[in-house]
Amino acid sequence: MLRVVVLVSGGGTNLQAIIDAVDNGEITNTEIVGVISNNKNAYALERAKAKGIPNQCISPKDYETRAEFNDALLHAVDEMKADLLVLAGFLVVIPEKMIEQYRNRIINIHPSLIPSFCGTGFYGLKVHEAALEKGVKVVGATVHFVDEGTDTGAIILQKAVAVEKGDTPELLQRRVMEQAEWKILPKAIDLIANDKLEMIDGKVWIK
Ligand code: GAR
């Protein structure tokens, strides 16, 4: 069984998609062993509680230095004996030590087709605002491994979504979630849990 820890900051709809996919068998060989939020008010924590999944808040605000927060975060995932860390709307920079220790065992969902609308400053609604501002007609979401850069790690899965006339950032965000994020994030976890991915020259392929 793949032991998954999900890291969240907000509403947790991607966490919910993972929980539902484990329940309905779309994700196999997987146990969600913990949920960590940096924000104590994140609704994602309620979703974990409702499901009886061990959950905790580890907030930078509760530590004097960033280094102490980083140590606490790493300690928490180590304690849970995580095989895979899933960043599901986790808006915290991952400590380098954690990236090294969990190399190719941390995945992130990003609400655009990387390399468009990604990197520093592109998160949440800002991504969709930028896409509408540019006038692109196709957007989407990406699941990728996490490396030292921002949204630069090897791409695992992507799914495209059409922009529609009259879209607002909120409408577009919702459509990208429904049509792309909630599908490809559970799918990526299932592929990893069942050893269906391989890395060739730094690029990820389905075996
Ligand atoms: C999702 O759209 C996710 O792709 C995005 O935050 C949202 C979290 O929603 N992540 C990023 O922008 C990371 N750069 P959720 O809490 O409902 O899953």
Summarize, please.
The chain has a single domain (2-206), classed as Rossmann fold (3-Layer(aba) Sandwich).
CATH superfamily, by name, is Formyl transferase, N-terminal domain
User: Helix tally?
Assistant: 6
What is the level-2 CATH architecture name? 3-Layer(aba) Sandwich
Protein structure class: alpha/beta
CATH class descriptor = Alpha Beta
Shape: globular
The average pLDDT value, as a whole number, equals 98
Bound molecules: glycinamide ribonucleotide
Read across the widest sheet, the strand sequence of neighbours is: 3-2-1-4-5-6-7
Which fold name is given in CATH as the topology? Rossmann fold
Whole-number tally of structural domains: 1
Which sheet architecture does the biggest sheet show? 7 strands, mixed
SSE order in H/E notation? EHEHEHEHEHEEHEE
Structure description:
The chain has one domain (2-206): Formyl transferase, N-terminal domain (Rossmann fold). It is α/β, with parallel strands linked by helices. The two termini are 20 Å apart. It has six helices and nine strands; from the N terminus they run βαβαβαβαβαββαββ. A seven-stranded mixed beta sheet has the order 3-2-1-4-5-6-7, with helices on one face. α2 links the parallel β2 (30-37) and β3 (55-57). Bound molecules: glycinamide ribonucleotide.
